[in-house]
Amino acid sequence: MDVIVYESGTPGSGQSAGESRIFRHAHDDVRLAAFVRHSRALWREWEAEFGVELVSGAGAVAIGDSVEDKLRVLSGLPEIPVRLLAPAELAAALPILADFQGKAMFDAQGGAIRTRAAFRALAGTLEDALVADHVLTVRPAGRSVEVRTGTRVDRFDHAVLCAGRGTAALARGAGLDIPVEHAAHARVTFRVRDGASAPLPTFQDGSGVFGETGVYAAPSADNRRYAVGLSETTDVRQDGSLADPAALESLSARAAAYVRTALPGLDPEPDGYVHCWVTRLPWGDDGVGIWSAGSVSAVAGHNLFKQAPALGEALAETALSGVVPAVLRPESQLGKS
Q1: FAD dependent oxidoreductase domain: which residues (predicted)?
Q2: d(CA 298, CA 64)
């Protein structure tokens, strides 16, 4: 097929901003874990095609009582190598972490997604197909679909909507109702003290031992910085404004306080920030789905970066066949908590 990609800004500057994302297999829904496993294989294919590392080989560490649930779900997928870590093994794998004697696990095929490298490779491949313009409306027009931008009116056989916070509004104009919930989020970057002798894994902390639960973190590509965020978000009003404009600063301050307690291997003085919008579906933080009708399809959900290759494959299949893969239909509630 011939493809046009509309992008109103620099590719990767919206909800995907920042140097890294976590690739992990652990999910509450075993179907999503299997889908992510397939996506990991596609990331490897992209690495071979583009000749660049896109997911680090340092693995993913998780701590807290929820580790047992994660391992139980993944036990149904024995081809994903995960294991418990003893305290000494945890200290060796993540030397920037304070002493922790609780439950810990290691996902050997997890790691940090090199987001900027991925966007450079993908945008470079699609350079001739990129149109720098904002889309106002997408609507069915007979047997085709009309796309109106700031300066163009184009028609296509099929349109795929993947516009982050703007997806639901564009989809509504095409007759698709996506029950997405908006919020805002902060992630703070800290410098690694004295450098790290080996590549650092990604990290999730659901233990509460260090004062917070729902913490996640990932290293930069040069291993000199570590981005730390809380899963907690701040509410957004109907008009898109923040209900409490000071809430992002509060989340950032809590991330810094967590670092002082839990990650003594980091300098607790913030070195950078990522503020972004979050789009969640009602059935869970990891919920994802594809809505499709006629000549328009749309994808929505949260924590989607690791799924990008597999979602792209599914969206292409939907555009060509007119049929959404069963597991990604909204009624399947993929990623349900």
Answers
A1: 2-317
A2: 35
Backbone angles phi, psi at 37, to 5 degrees: -60, -45
Q: Which residue has the tokens 């670092």?
A: 259
CATH topology for 60-108+181-280? D-Amino Acid Oxidase; Chain A, domain 2 (3.30.9)
- For residue 79, the 8-state DSSP code is T
When pLDDT is averaged across residues 319-330 and rounded to a whole number, the result is 97
Residue 196 pLDDT greater than 80, yes or no:
no
Instruction: Tell me: pLDDT of 279 over 80.
Output: yes
Contact 265, 225 (CB under 8 A): no
Joined together, the tokens standing for residue 69 give 């649930």
What mean pLDDT, rounded, does the chain reach? Answer: 96
Is the CA virtual torsion 214, 220, 223, 224 positive or negative? negative
User: Does residue 98 contact residue 260 with C-beta atoms inside 8 Å?
Assistant: no
Task: Record the tokens describing residue 72, joined without a space.
Answer: 């139980």
Mean pLDDT, rounded, for 8-35: 93
The CATH number of domain 1-56+111-180+286-337 is 3.40.50.720:
no
Rounded-to-integer distance, Cα 28 and Cα 21, Å = 19
* Stretch (H or E) spanning 298: strand 296-301
Domain positions in the chain: 1-56+111-180+286-337, 60-108+181-280
Question: Is the whole model's pTM more than 0.90, yes or no?
Answer: yes
